[in-house]
Specification:
The protein contains two helices and ten strands, in the order H-H-E-E-E-E-E-E-E-E-E-E. The protein has 171 residues and is an alpha+beta fold. Strand 6 and strand 7 form a beta hairpin. The structure holds FE2/S2 (inorganic) cluster. The site of FE2/S2 (inorganic) cluster has 12 residues, from loops.
């Protein structure tokens, strides 16, 4: 008539049994094994320690950045605008490469051409010197910010904060 009584009692008994077993186990360990309990612990902890150290070391030696162009495409005394990267790379004198933001400091247009020693914005006519990005003609009042590039052999690499498209080391 009371089918619930049986399962509930079974559960209670099982619970009491396991609790008693736990209590007994704890009690005997605590009393006798106070000095012997450290034995199982040291075997597990040293394995996690050394594995986290050496993994971060060698990864940082790879140069972070994006190959932008060959040096041969940058005219001496001029420059090339990379609209996608929003960067302009100039070569004021042979073998000397500079890079600047291609975003005009006046109102944010992308500069349009490099000509006669200046990087020109056609929106309102600002011009910036290829040697250092300084303003050659307003209305822009501030120079183009320099961008970080590295030249290795004949390749110009743009030093981005770290890109997301370098996932194919096997190719
Ligand atoms: Fe370049 Fe105005 S945005 S001159």
């Amino acid at each position: 008539m009371t089918p619930e009584a049986t399962p509930r009692r079974t559960v209670l008994l099982a619970g009491a049994g396991s609790a008693a077993a736990l209590a007994t186990g704890c009690g005997s360990d605590g009393d006798d094994g106070g000095s012997t309990s450290p034995t199982p612990d040291p075997t597990s902890s040293p394995t996690t320690g050394p594995t986290s150290g050496p993994t971060s070391g060698p990864a940082s030696s790879a140069p972070a950045g994006k190959a932008l162009a060959k040096t041969s495409v940058i005219p001496v005394g001029g420059g090339t605008i990379f609209k996608e990267e929003k960067v302009v790379v100039t070569q004021p004198t042979a073998g000397e490469f500079k890079a600047f933001s291609a975003i005009c400091t006046h109102q944010g247009c992308t500069v349009a051409k490099v000509e006669n020693g200046t990087i020109d914005c056609l929106c309102h006519g600002s011009k910036f010197r290829i040697a250092n990005g300084s303003v050659a003609r307003g209305p822009a009042a501030r120079p183009l910010p320099a961008e970080q590039i590295t030249v290795s052999g004949d390749t110009i690499t743009l030093a981005y904060p770290v890109a997301h498209d370098s996932e194919g080391p096997g190719a």
